[in-house]
Amino acid sequence: MPDSTMVGLHREEEHHPELLHHFAEAQQQRDAASLGMWVFLATEVMFFGGLFCAYLVYRRWYFGDFAAASKSIDATLGATNTAVLICSSLTVVLAVWAAQTARRTLLIAMLGITMILGLAFLGIKGVEYKDKFEEHHVPGASFRFENVPIPGHPGQFANPRHAQIFFSLYFVMTGLHALHMIIGLGIFLWLLIMAWKGRFTPEWHTPVEIGGLYWHFVDIVWIYLFPLLYLIDRHP
Amino acid sequence: MSEHSSTSASAKSSPLKMYFGIWAALLVGTFVTYKAAFIELGRFNAAVALGIATIKATLVALFFMHVWQASEKLTKLVVIAAVFFLLLLLGLTMSDYATRLWS
Hints:
The complex is a heterodimer of chains A (236) and B (103).
Chain A: H1 4-14, H2 26-61, H3 63-71, H4 75-100, H5 104-134, E1 149-150, E2 153-157, H6 160-196, H7 206-230
Antiparallel strand pairs in A: 1-2
Chain B: H1 2-5, H2 16-36, H3 44-64, H4 73-99
Helix pairs in contact in B: 2-3
Protein backbone atom coordinates (compact mmCIF):
# COMPACT_ATOMS: atom_id res chain seq x y z
CA MET A 1 0.00 0.00 0.00
CA PRO A 2 1.31 3.47 -0.81
CA ASP A 3 1.43 5.91 2.09
CA SER A 4 -1.52 8.13 2.84
CA THR A 5 -0.20 11.27 1.13
CA MET A 6 0.21 9.35 -2.07
CA VAL A 7 -3.36 8.08 -1.83
CA GLY A 8 -4.48 11.66 -1.16
CA LEU A 9 -2.67 13.01 -4.21
CA HIS A 10 -3.98 10.23 -6.31
CA ARG A 11 -7.54 11.04 -5.31
CA GLU A 12 -7.05 14.76 -5.92
CA GLU A 13 -6.06 14.08 -9.47
CA GLU A 14 -8.26 11.22 -10.47
CA HIS A 15 -11.41 11.32 -8.43
CA HIS A 16 -14.76 11.50 -10.13
CA PRO A 17 -15.79 15.11 -10.86
CA GLU A 18 -19.00 14.60 -8.85
CA LEU A 19 -17.10 13.43 -5.73
CA LEU A 20 -17.09 16.39 -3.35
CA HIS A 21 -13.94 17.12 -1.37
CA HIS A 22 -15.42 16.60 2.07
CA PHE A 23 -16.19 12.94 1.32
CA ALA A 24 -13.48 10.30 1.57
CA GLU A 25 -14.86 8.23 -1.27
CA ALA A 26 -17.81 7.84 -3.60
CA GLN A 27 -19.50 5.19 -1.43
CA GLN A 28 -19.52 7.52 1.58
CA GLN A 29 -21.01 10.31 -0.52
CA ARG A 30 -23.72 7.96 -1.83
CA ASP A 31 -24.57 6.78 1.70
CA ALA A 32 -24.78 10.37 2.92
CA ALA A 33 -27.12 11.36 0.10
CA SER A 34 -29.30 8.33 0.66
CA LEU A 35 -29.41 8.92 4.43
CA GLY A 36 -30.40 12.54 3.84
CA MET A 37 -33.29 11.42 1.64
CA TRP A 38 -34.42 8.88 4.23
CA VAL A 39 -34.43 11.54 6.97
CA PHE A 40 -36.57 13.73 4.71
CA LEU A 41 -38.90 10.78 4.10
CA ALA A 42 -39.15 10.25 7.88
CA THR A 43 -40.47 13.82 8.18
CA GLU A 44 -42.89 13.04 5.36
CA VAL A 45 -44.12 9.99 7.30
CA MET A 46 -44.99 12.28 10.21
CA PHE A 47 -46.53 14.86 7.83
CA PHE A 48 -48.91 12.35 6.27
CA GLY A 49 -49.18 10.56 9.64
CA GLY A 50 -51.02 13.53 11.16
CA LEU A 51 -53.61 13.35 8.39
CA PHE A 52 -53.97 9.58 8.75
CA CYS A 53 -54.47 10.12 12.49
CA ALA A 54 -57.23 12.70 11.91
CA TYR A 55 -58.81 10.31 9.42
CA LEU A 56 -58.80 7.40 11.90
CA VAL A 57 -60.36 9.47 14.70
CA TYR A 58 -63.23 10.71 12.51
CA ARG A 59 -63.70 7.33 10.87
CA ARG A 60 -64.24 5.82 14.32
CA TRP A 61 -66.72 8.52 15.29
CA TYR A 62 -68.70 8.63 12.04
CA PHE A 63 -68.14 5.18 10.58
CA GLY A 64 -71.50 4.87 8.80
CA ASP A 65 -71.28 8.35 7.28
CA PHE A 66 -67.70 7.69 6.17
CA ALA A 67 -68.74 4.35 4.63
CA ALA A 68 -71.57 6.02 2.69
CA ALA A 69 -69.26 8.80 1.47
CA SER A 70 -66.50 6.33 0.56
CA LYS A 71 -68.98 4.28 -1.46
CA SER A 72 -69.71 7.30 -3.69
CA ILE A 73 -66.13 7.27 -5.02
CA ASP A 74 -65.33 5.06 -8.00
CA ALA A 75 -63.27 2.22 -6.47
CA THR A 76 -62.29 0.90 -9.91
CA LEU A 77 -60.55 4.20 -10.70
CA GLY A 78 -58.73 3.97 -7.37
CA ALA A 79 -57.66 0.37 -8.00
CA THR A 80 -56.50 1.27 -11.52
CA ASN A 81 -54.44 4.12 -10.12
CA THR A 82 -52.89 1.76 -7.56
CA ALA A 83 -51.83 -0.57 -10.38
CA VAL A 84 -50.48 2.40 -12.39
CA LEU A 85 -48.33 3.54 -9.46
CA ILE A 86 -47.05 0.01 -8.79
CA CYS A 87 -46.00 -0.27 -12.44
CA SER A 88 -44.25 3.10 -12.16
CA SER A 89 -42.36 1.83 -9.10
CA LEU A 90 -41.15 -1.10 -11.21
CA THR A 91 -39.94 1.24 -13.97
CA VAL A 92 -38.13 3.31 -11.31
CA VAL A 93 -36.15 0.33 -9.98
CA LEU A 94 -35.40 -0.65 -13.57
CA ALA A 95 -34.14 2.91 -14.19
CA VAL A 96 -31.83 2.67 -11.17
CA TRP A 97 -30.61 -0.71 -12.41
CA ALA A 98 -30.03 0.72 -15.91
CA ALA A 99 -27.94 3.53 -14.38
CA GLN A 100 -25.93 1.02 -12.32
CA THR A 101 -25.21 -1.07 -15.40
CA ALA A 102 -24.50 1.83 -17.80
CA ARG A 103 -27.54 1.24 -20.05
CA ARG A 104 -28.28 4.80 -21.14
CA THR A 105 -31.10 4.01 -23.59
CA LEU A 106 -32.89 1.81 -21.07
CA LEU A 107 -32.44 4.48 -18.38
CA ILE A 108 -34.00 7.15 -20.62
CA ALA A 109 -36.84 4.79 -21.58
CA MET A 110 -37.61 3.84 -17.96
CA LEU A 111 -37.54 7.46 -16.75
CA GLY A 112 -39.85 8.38 -19.65
CA ILE A 113 -42.30 5.55 -18.94
CA THR A 114 -42.30 6.47 -15.24
CA MET A 115 -43.33 10.01 -16.17
CA ILE A 116 -46.05 8.74 -18.53
CA LEU A 117 -47.43 6.53 -15.75
CA GLY A 118 -47.26 9.46 -13.32
CA LEU A 119 -49.22 11.62 -15.77
CA ALA A 120 -51.74 8.79 -16.29
CA PHE A 121 -52.22 8.65 -12.51
CA LEU A 122 -52.93 12.40 -12.38
CA GLY A 123 -55.28 12.12 -15.38
CA ILE A 124 -57.34 9.38 -13.70
CA LYS A 125 -57.31 11.44 -10.50
CA GLY A 126 -58.64 14.38 -12.54
CA VAL A 127 -61.55 12.26 -13.84
CA GLU A 128 -62.32 11.29 -10.25
CA TYR A 129 -62.23 14.91 -9.04
CA LYS A 130 -64.47 15.95 -11.96
CA ASP A 131 -67.06 13.35 -10.87
CA LYS A 132 -66.93 14.70 -7.31
CA PHE A 133 -67.40 18.29 -8.50
CA GLU A 134 -70.39 17.29 -10.64
CA GLU A 135 -71.96 15.35 -7.76
CA HIS A 136 -71.53 18.37 -5.42
CA HIS A 137 -69.30 16.31 -3.15
CA VAL A 138 -66.66 19.02 -2.81
CA PRO A 139 -66.79 20.56 0.70
CA GLY A 140 -68.11 24.09 0.71
CA ALA A 141 -71.28 26.09 0.08
CA SER A 142 -72.61 23.82 -2.69
CA PHE A 143 -71.92 20.55 -0.89
CA ARG A 144 -74.87 18.12 -1.16
CA PHE A 145 -75.10 14.69 0.40
CA GLU A 146 -78.81 14.23 1.11
CA ASN A 147 -80.61 10.89 1.47
CA VAL A 148 -77.53 8.74 0.91
CA PRO A 149 -78.10 5.37 2.62
CA ILE A 150 -75.59 4.05 5.13
CA PRO A 151 -74.26 0.67 3.90
CA GLY A 152 -75.58 -2.22 5.99
CA HIS A 153 -78.19 -0.08 7.76
CA PRO A 154 -81.38 -0.02 5.65
CA GLY A 155 -83.52 3.07 6.19
CA GLN A 156 -80.67 5.11 7.72
CA PHE A 157 -79.13 8.01 5.88
CA ALA A 158 -75.71 9.58 6.20
CA ASN A 159 -75.36 12.89 8.04
CA PRO A 160 -74.18 15.38 5.35
CA ARG A 161 -72.06 17.30 7.87
CA HIS A 162 -70.15 14.16 8.78
CA ALA A 163 -69.85 13.09 5.15
CA GLN A 164 -68.39 16.53 4.44
CA ILE A 165 -65.60 15.78 6.91
CA PHE A 166 -64.81 12.62 4.95
CA PHE A 167 -64.61 14.56 1.70
CA SER A 168 -62.44 17.25 3.31
CA LEU A 169 -59.99 14.54 4.37
CA TYR A 170 -60.32 12.86 0.95
CA PHE A 171 -59.42 16.04 -0.93
CA VAL A 172 -56.63 17.10 1.42
CA MET A 173 -55.00 13.65 1.48
CA THR A 174 -55.34 12.82 -2.22
CA GLY A 175 -54.56 16.45 -3.10
CA LEU A 176 -51.33 16.48 -1.08
CA HIS A 177 -50.47 13.11 -2.59
CA ALA A 178 -51.11 14.50 -6.08
CA LEU A 179 -48.89 17.50 -5.23
CA HIS A 180 -46.14 15.03 -4.34
CA MET A 181 -46.70 13.32 -7.69
CA ILE A 182 -46.37 16.65 -9.52
CA ILE A 183 -43.11 17.41 -7.67
CA GLY A 184 -41.96 13.86 -8.50
CA LEU A 185 -42.67 14.48 -12.17
CA GLY A 186 -40.52 17.61 -11.99
CA ILE A 187 -37.68 15.62 -10.41
CA PHE A 188 -37.99 12.92 -13.05
CA LEU A 189 -38.02 15.46 -15.89
CA TRP A 190 -34.70 16.75 -14.54
CA LEU A 191 -33.37 13.19 -14.25
CA LEU A 192 -34.48 12.55 -17.83
CA ILE A 193 -32.58 15.60 -19.10
CA MET A 194 -29.47 14.58 -17.12
CA ALA A 195 -29.72 11.02 -18.47
CA TRP A 196 -30.15 12.38 -22.00
CA LYS A 197 -26.93 14.34 -21.60
CA GLY A 198 -25.22 11.14 -20.45
CA ARG A 199 -24.37 12.49 -17.01
CA PHE A 200 -25.10 9.27 -15.12
CA THR A 201 -22.51 6.51 -14.88
CA PRO A 202 -22.26 3.32 -12.83
CA GLU A 203 -19.90 5.31 -10.54
CA TRP A 204 -22.24 8.28 -10.10
CA HIS A 205 -26.00 8.14 -10.45
CA THR A 206 -27.01 9.24 -6.96
CA PRO A 207 -29.84 11.52 -8.20
CA VAL A 208 -31.51 8.53 -9.89
CA GLU A 209 -31.28 6.54 -6.65
CA ILE A 210 -32.62 9.18 -4.28
CA GLY A 211 -35.19 10.45 -6.80
CA GLY A 212 -36.32 6.82 -6.93
CA LEU A 213 -36.58 6.69 -3.12
CA TYR A 214 -38.92 9.69 -3.23
CA TRP A 215 -41.07 8.12 -5.95
CA HIS A 216 -41.39 4.83 -4.06
CA PHE A 217 -42.38 6.70 -0.90
CA VAL A 218 -45.19 8.48 -2.74
CA ASP A 219 -46.27 5.02 -3.98
CA ILE A 220 -46.35 3.71 -0.38
CA VAL A 221 -48.57 6.62 0.73
CA TRP A 222 -51.01 5.71 -2.05
CA ILE A 223 -50.92 2.02 -1.07
CA TYR A 224 -52.51 3.12 2.25
CA LEU A 225 -54.76 5.84 0.83
CA PHE A 226 -56.44 3.44 -1.58
CA PRO A 227 -58.02 1.01 0.94
CA LEU A 228 -58.63 3.72 3.56
CA LEU A 229 -60.49 6.17 1.32
CA TYR A 230 -62.04 3.96 -1.37
CA LEU A 231 -62.86 0.68 0.37
CA ILE A 232 -64.31 1.49 3.81
CA ASP A 233 -67.50 -0.59 3.55
CA ARG A 234 -68.17 -1.75 0.01
CA HIS A 235 -69.91 -5.08 0.35
CA PRO A 236 -73.65 -5.12 -0.42
CA MET B 1 -12.44 -2.06 -0.52
CA SER B 2 -13.79 -5.28 -1.94
CA GLU B 3 -17.29 -4.66 -0.62
CA HIS B 4 -17.32 -1.23 -2.24
CA SER B 5 -16.27 -2.49 -5.62
CA SER B 6 -19.14 -4.97 -5.47
CA THR B 7 -21.46 -2.09 -6.41
CA SER B 8 -20.23 -2.49 -9.96
CA ALA B 9 -22.72 -4.40 -12.02
CA SER B 10 -20.65 -7.36 -13.05
CA ALA B 11 -19.93 -8.38 -9.46
CA LYS B 12 -23.63 -8.61 -8.62
CA SER B 13 -26.08 -11.14 -9.93
CA SER B 14 -28.89 -9.50 -11.83
CA PRO B 15 -31.74 -8.43 -9.53
CA LEU B 16 -34.24 -8.20 -12.39
CA LYS B 17 -36.02 -11.44 -11.53
CA MET B 18 -36.57 -10.20 -7.99
CA TYR B 19 -37.87 -6.81 -9.19
CA PHE B 20 -40.44 -8.40 -11.49
CA GLY B 21 -41.42 -10.86 -8.74
CA ILE B 22 -42.07 -8.02 -6.27
CA TRP B 23 -44.00 -6.14 -8.95
CA ALA B 24 -46.23 -9.18 -9.58
CA ALA B 25 -46.78 -9.64 -5.83
CA LEU B 26 -47.82 -5.97 -5.49
CA LEU B 27 -50.31 -6.27 -8.35
CA VAL B 28 -51.77 -9.48 -6.87
CA GLY B 29 -52.05 -7.70 -3.50
CA THR B 30 -53.92 -4.80 -5.11
CA PHE B 31 -56.32 -7.20 -6.86
CA VAL B 32 -56.97 -9.16 -3.64
CA THR B 33 -57.55 -5.92 -1.69
CA TYR B 34 -60.05 -4.74 -4.29
CA LYS B 35 -61.93 -8.05 -4.45
CA ALA B 36 -61.94 -8.65 -0.68
CA ALA B 37 -63.55 -5.25 -0.09
CA PHE B 38 -66.76 -6.48 -1.78
CA ILE B 39 -67.03 -9.61 0.40
CA GLU B 40 -68.78 -9.44 3.77
CA LEU B 41 -66.09 -10.09 6.38
CA GLY B 42 -67.53 -8.00 9.19
CA ARG B 43 -64.87 -6.15 11.12
CA PHE B 44 -62.17 -8.13 9.33
CA ASN B 45 -62.64 -6.14 6.11
CA ALA B 46 -60.52 -3.31 7.48
CA ALA B 47 -57.96 -5.74 8.94
CA VAL B 48 -57.54 -7.53 5.60
CA ALA B 49 -57.23 -4.25 3.66
CA LEU B 50 -54.68 -2.74 6.06
CA GLY B 51 -52.79 -6.02 6.42
CA ILE B 52 -52.30 -6.34 2.68
CA ALA B 53 -51.39 -2.62 2.43
CA THR B 54 -48.72 -3.11 5.10
CA ILE B 55 -47.29 -6.16 3.32
CA LYS B 56 -47.18 -4.17 0.05
CA ALA B 57 -45.54 -1.15 1.70
CA THR B 58 -42.97 -3.42 3.36
CA LEU B 59 -42.14 -5.08 0.04
CA VAL B 60 -41.65 -1.69 -1.64
CA ALA B 61 -39.42 -0.41 1.19
CA LEU B 62 -37.32 -3.57 1.56
CA PHE B 63 -36.76 -4.46 -2.09
CA PHE B 64 -37.51 -1.44 -4.28
CA MET B 65 -35.98 1.07 -1.84
CA HIS B 66 -33.20 -1.42 -1.02
CA VAL B 67 -33.54 -1.26 2.75
CA TRP B 68 -33.05 -5.05 2.87
CA GLN B 69 -29.53 -5.32 1.51
CA ALA B 70 -27.76 -2.30 0.18
CA SER B 71 -28.38 0.30 2.84
CA GLU B 72 -26.34 1.16 5.88
CA LYS B 73 -27.36 0.43 9.47
CA LEU B 74 -27.96 4.14 9.94
CA THR B 75 -30.51 4.13 7.11
CA LYS B 76 -32.30 1.19 8.71
CA LEU B 77 -32.35 3.09 12.00
CA VAL B 78 -34.05 6.08 10.33
CA VAL B 79 -36.66 3.80 8.72
CA ILE B 80 -37.39 2.05 12.02
CA ALA B 81 -37.55 5.41 13.85
CA ALA B 82 -40.05 6.77 11.31
CA VAL B 83 -42.32 3.73 11.65
CA PHE B 84 -41.95 3.73 15.44
CA PHE B 85 -42.98 7.37 15.86
CA LEU B 86 -45.86 6.93 13.41
CA LEU B 87 -47.14 3.98 15.46
CA LEU B 88 -46.65 6.02 18.64
CA LEU B 89 -48.76 8.85 17.17
CA LEU B 90 -51.53 6.57 15.91
CA GLY B 91 -51.40 4.10 18.82
CA LEU B 92 -51.55 6.61 21.67
CA THR B 93 -54.17 8.78 19.96
CA MET B 94 -56.43 5.87 19.11
CA SER B 95 -56.04 4.21 22.52
CA ASP B 96 -57.40 7.44 23.99
CA TYR B 97 -60.30 7.81 21.56
CA ALA B 98 -61.16 4.12 21.77
CA THR B 99 -61.36 3.97 25.56
CA ARG B 100 -62.92 7.31 26.49
CA LEU B 101 -66.64 7.98 26.58
CA TRP B 102 -67.41 11.05 24.48
CA SER B 103 -70.89 12.32 25.12
